[in-house]
What does this fold into?
Amino acid sequence: MATTRVTDTGNLIYAGIEEIFRGAAAAPMEVDYKNIVREKPLQDLYGYYEQLGDLGSARKHSEEADVYYHKIEWSNRTTITSYVYENGIKGSLESMHFDKYDIIEQYFGEPLVRTMVNMKERVVAEVYNDVFTDTGADGTYLAYAEHPLKNSTTLYNDNLASGDMDGDNIIAAKNKFNHIYDQAGEFYPTRATHLLCHPDKEYLALMLLNSNLMALEISNTKNVLQDVMPVKVLTNKFLEGASSTIFPWFLLDKTQRAGCVLQTSKGLDLKTFWDWDTLTFKGLVYEIYGCGMIAPGYGFVASPGS
It folds into this structure.
């Protein structure tokens, strides 16, 4: 009669963990970061994101005059580095042998996957949180009032808004998209498509955008915030503010190949093994990715919230 020996426990555990972990990784899970990044598969350690210098203006041709040929050149290069993010758990032989499947489900499934997802949420949100202090490829803060242009010395791009999220400040931030230029100083086709805020501010955002009259005002002024450049509301609970009531907010143009990029090099993977010196079963889950803002001066307008 066939029997299961203690030495077979490892094989049973491996099969059980692999099935439960893969199932948890593939199961639908609510995440915030996917709505505010552009994901790009990349196997290299470093991702290089070049920004063209843009051509100068077209001109009226004078009969028999020479055509002026603009030179193709680069303006800014953003480098995003991928890192390994990991988490590990272990269990004694006794705990794994006598209660193996309960242990596997409680620790090697959804909870383990969730820790990795939360890590990615924090990494992506940190890019947004730091736009007011991190320097971009053009040598200025990522959210800044004077982003220099490669082929224009008199114009700048301004993607820094100010103040709390209210009707007037949203209008002012939206209008900044009307004055975004390409690197040669020509008007750039961009507009706000989404409003990103902390979930604590979601109800305020919806009131401001969707009220028939201007919200939080004692007047009969019609609310036209959504009549010009209507936006959809996105929230992210990992955004960090100056206090428990002051949070940054962002207007995003998600039609652009600019803004936040998440370069993914290696998806979630699980490695399991026995440490026979301590009779301990160990599991290591890891993922490789990098995140950053590219094309400084484009893709978003941000306010620190105060």
